[in-house]
Amino acid sequence: MRTLIENLDVLFQVDANNTVLRGASLVLNGGRIVDVGPAAEIAERCRDLTYDQVVDGRGHALCPGFIDTHVHLSETLSRAIFPDNLNTRAWVFNWAKPFYAHVTTEDEYYGALLGICEMLRCGTTCFLDMGSQHDPEHVVDAIERSGIRGITGRHAADNRPKDIPEGWSAEMMDHHFFPDAATALAALEDCVRRFNGRAGGRIRCWVNIEGKEPCTLELHVGARALAERLGVGTTYHLATSAEEAQVCERNYGTWPVSRIAAAGGLGSNLVIAHCVAVNDADLDALSAHSVKVAFCPCSSLKLAKGASRIGRYPDMMDRGVIVGLGTDGVSASGNLNLMRQMHIVSGLFKDARNDPEAVGAQKALRMATVDAAKALLWDDEIGSIEVGKQADFVLFDTDHIEWTPFLDPLQALVYSATTSSIAQTWVAGVPLYASGRIATLDEDAIKRKARQLSASAADRAGLFKLNPATSAVTRLYDEGN
């Protein structure tokens, strides 16, 4: 099917030159981009072509689809349930783990569908999911059914606490914690072989683990090595906060990134989620091994990770480290909206460092598109509007109040626009979100089911009985606890 989208007000290519075209057209053949350029040039070059579909682009801006480098689909049903006074470790061990202990495969399936609905409405066309707490088949099915592009896997850990913490369950310990790294890696390899390449290549499966304290050093190192052997990537949480770094130093005498580096565990197919607490030696190691980083601004602000105070993301980028934007899960961040992340990161370090040139709008857009694609090892097909790439993009209504008026379209996109002005979200040449609805999913039915399942899971987990004051601290994994 050949499609012409003509006479766009603005087209952001996000190519090597950060090309922004006024009065542009785009030609698609099936799910691929076959031509792009000024409208008059496209009309001349393609005058002999016939089209199955012609879309009037007047009153619209087009940019590459946003790519989320770190999300937890299995967390979606926990939106706005946990208290607002938690740091990262207390959030994980005292609240998230009890919730995960009582999440069923049905919960994860509908949580994935709900999260995908939100992402498509927010212009997200691809994501890296940390993975299911169970076998990921139901999450893969949700991705396939929706039409979105994504990477998932099976969440895994192998460093069990000596005693079962409050709110956890023996069943969760069994399905989440493998008896050793070798057993975990065997299960992860099986997942990759079963699911990688599903839906004509639109779905990929990686060797994903939880990372940090719940995983042994052997599993951290082994996951990346296994992923390299299988020709895929791996991702895990690391250096998520100063508190985690301090625990690591007390337990092992070094900071988290340096500990993995010393064991030979870093590489170009690794995406480290958060990576807030790093020192100069860590920066050197990240750069030397071409490690990718997923920065989640909203999560850092909500869980007091310290990005504005100790975050070294501008320094990473100055050293050539690819940093993509992520949302994290909806409980950790409050949303799956990459436009919020772009807005925050474009100005966060300007303010924190009193430097008006720190990051800014252009870099923020790249972090949400082509740099994110590089992190996901998918930039040969997605992340920019260029000939040969997949037709994944977002159309904005430039007649919306948010775009009225604008001289610099880039500033309008990053600083002024929100998801309110998103008109359409396309994946592989198909408009999955248009006219205020998602074409492939019944949102009303999904929302009804999600409300029911969320309340049941939280009740089973006993979250309504926990005291937010006494459960806001933890010493789990600290000095052997």
From TrEMBL:
<dbReference type="InterPro" id="IPR006680">
    <property type="entry name" value="Amidohydro-rel"/>
</dbReference>
<dbReference type="Pfam" id="PF01979">
    <property type="entry name" value="Amidohydro_1"/>
</dbReference>
<protein>
    <submittedName>
        <fullName>Cytosine/adenosine deaminase</fullName>
    </submittedName>
</protein>
<dbReference type="InterPro" id="IPR011059">
    <property type="entry name" value="Metal-dep_hydrolase_composite"/>
</dbReference>
<dbReference type="InterPro" id="IPR032466">
    <property type="entry name" value="Metal_Hydrolase"/>
</dbReference>
<feature type="domain" description="Amidohydrolase-related">
    <location>
        <begin position="62"/>
        <end position="430"/>
    </location>
</feature>
<comment type="similarity">
    <text>Belongs to the metallo-dependent hydrolases superfamily. ATZ/TRZ family.</text>
</comment>
<dbReference type="GO" id="GO:0016810">
    <property type="term" value="F:hydrolase activity, acting on carbon-nitrogen (but not peptide) bonds"/>
</dbReference>
<keyword id="KW-0378">Hydrolase</keyword>
<dbReference type="InterPro" id="IPR050287">
    <property type="entry name" value="MTA/SAH_deaminase"/>
</dbReference>
